[in-house]
């Protein structure tokens, strides 16, 4: 749960990151930047800011903003009603993002699961994305990601997004943020 | 047909437009910027520069660069082998783009078909996109677009792209550019 004041302050902070990356939003878009606290109540640790440009039955495009060391918790996009899960490409636009996917664990990774939550992070194959670098995550693949010390802006190009069906490793997570 | 020298010079010019918009490409991407002359041999008039980030069976994302008043000729994306045609969203990132789609003709439009080619342009409903503005073109809908006097950078978010199946109103057009 976040307060209405926290929502607005976080939207404005996310918009600054976008502006600093040269990405222009309309006033209507700034006001609908989504702030996800994942129901964990500590937005600076587990959180993500998103603006969705388009989301039809076939295509979705978003910008993701992460503040320094902010983490999007581990999840996957399952098949829904016979339709393959979401396929998504992350393209880093500014900052650095540490992405973790299924595969051999990376020794000495640059990102770390948030303190006290290590048991909710099971994949540890590290992909480091700097500006202009990208990675495609196939459907139903566990992944999580964390910004570096400067935060990050990441474009996401994907099939239809139905975030409410995402399956998080931490079953305490609520994907839809409650605003007081 | 364009020369190898023209290809490289045009790639570098397109890259400058992207850089000025804050969009970062890898060296590998700069070298594979696609230059489309549509087989019409006058790139400054009919032409488009593209970098494709991802193009799978489900999702495609590109950046399009148009030089001042450069025009992408009228075309549509048909159904292919039972799969609905390409659905695409154009989001203007810098400059201005004049987009023409099916519907009531706009009186006093801000773009014009290239001189001598008016018969190959049949749709005239104008959509003007400045930075941060976007428009979604549904499958099999005729459209063409022209940059304003400063050129334009446009992000395209779409379903799978199979440009070789595009149907152009001008049947002299060859979508795949021949480099000498």
Biggest interface found: A-B, 28 and 28 residues
**Which topology of chain A does CATH recognise?**
Jelly Rolls
* Structural category of chain A: mainly beta
Low-confidence stretches of chain A: none
Total strands of chain A: the figure is 9
Highest-level CATH class of chain A: Mainly Beta
Task: Outline the biggest β-sheet of chain A.
Answer: 9 strands, antiparallel
Global geometry of chain A:
globular
Radius of gyration of chain A: 15 Å
Tally the helices of chain A: 2
Number of domains of chain A: 1
H/E element sequence of chain A: HHEEEEEEEEE
Mean pLDDT of chain A: 97
Helix content estimate of chain A:
10-25%
Strand fraction of chain A? 35-45%
Q: What is the CATH architecture term of chain A?
A: Sandwich
* First-last Cα distance of chain A: 7 Å
Task: Please name the fourth-level CATH homologous superfamily of chain A.
Answer: Jelly Rolls
Report on the structure:
Two copies of one chain form a homodimer. Chain A is mostly beta strands and 180 residues long. Chain A has two helices and nine strands. Chain A has one domain (4-168): Sandwich (Jelly Rolls). Chain A has helices at residues 4-20, 27-31; strands spanning 34-36, 48-55, 60-66, 71-76, 88-101, 125-129, 134-137, 143-158, 167-168. The interface between A and B is medium-sized, with 28 and 28 residues.
Give me a quick take on this structure.
By secondary structure, chain A is mainly beta. Chain A is built from two helices and nine strands.
